[in-house]
Structures are given as structure tokens and as C-alpha cells.
Amino acid sequence: MSWVTNMMLSTSMEDWKAAEALSEWLRTEAPRRYDSAALGCGYLRELTGAEVNPWGGWKNPECRVWAGALNHADLSALLDRVQTLPWLAPHAVQVFLMDQEQLFFRVWMFRDGELRQYAPERPDEEDPAFGPPYHP
After folding, report:
1. Residue 120: its pLDDT value, please?
2. Looking at residue 90, what DSSP letter applies?
3. Which of 7, 27, 109, 122 is the most exposed place for a label (fewest CB within 10 A)?
């Protein structure tokens, strides 16, 4: 069985080294949820390079965005790792996480020296106010 987390990372143009370090950590050292002895859960790929550009429009994006589909990622460990990296512009870092069976991204940003969640938690997919019943 798999458990997929969709992840996107947006940073300042200068913070590519920290993003690449995070990707390598995800590939080789990231712990998995459920106390698995296995390490690594995936990696990030840049979506905004001039040679890549899958975006619509006539121009190249003027931002840096990486994305990956992570398998069995320990999200607490992932967020802890993001917080410890040497970001040059931490206030520009945005982490977008959508865990399996979730329907929208939760957004994390640095403010006041901490990585904090900024997208709303409620309503979530289980709340009647969310919309029609969701059944994955």
C-alpha cells in the first residue's frame, strides 16, 4: 500500500541550494511514517526552470517552485527539516502539503522565526460544511 503526499515548495530565486538539499534529504534520509526502518520517501523536481516550463502563457515563471509526490512521508519530520535548512529568505518559503484523502493544500510559511500553517484547517474534508460527501 502507498500513502501519497503531494508537496510543492516555493522559494526566493536565490534559495535553490536549500531546496535541492531538502530534495536530497527526502530521497535518502527522510523517515517514513509508521516507524518504518526504511528511509527516503521521494524527491522534488523544479517546475519553473526555463528548460522545463510546463506552465501556460507566453512567458517563463518568475518564481522558483519544486514539486513531488512523496510516499509514506513523515510530515512532522519533513516540516522540522524545512525549519532547520539555511534559507536565505525564509519569509519567502512556502510549503504546500496535500496528504492522501485531502482535497486542498495546507500552506506553511515562516513568520516570527517559526514555520506556521496559514491555510485554514476547517472546514476539512470530513465536515458537513465542506460540500457534498467525499468518498475516496
Report:
1. 73
2. G
3. 122
Helix 16-28 and helix 75-84, axial crossing angle in degrees, nearest 10 = 150
Q: What is the pLDDT of residues 73-110, one digit of tens each?
A: 999 999 999 999 999 999 999 999 999 988 889 999 99
Q: What DSSP string runs through 54-109? A: ---SSS--SSEEEEEEEESB-HHHHHHHHHHS--SSGGG-EEEEEETT--S-EEEE
Which among 76, 81, 63 is positioned nearest to 27, based on CA atoms? Answer: 81
| pLDDT tier for residue 68 given thresholds of 50, 70 and 90 | very high
Looking up cell 538539499 gives 21
Interatomic CA distance for residues 29 and 70, integer angstroms: 13
How many CB atoms lie under 10 A from the CB of residue 116? 12
Residue closest to 49 by CA, chosen among 65, 33, 34: 65
Distance CA 25, CA 19 (A): 10
pTM across the whole model: 0.88
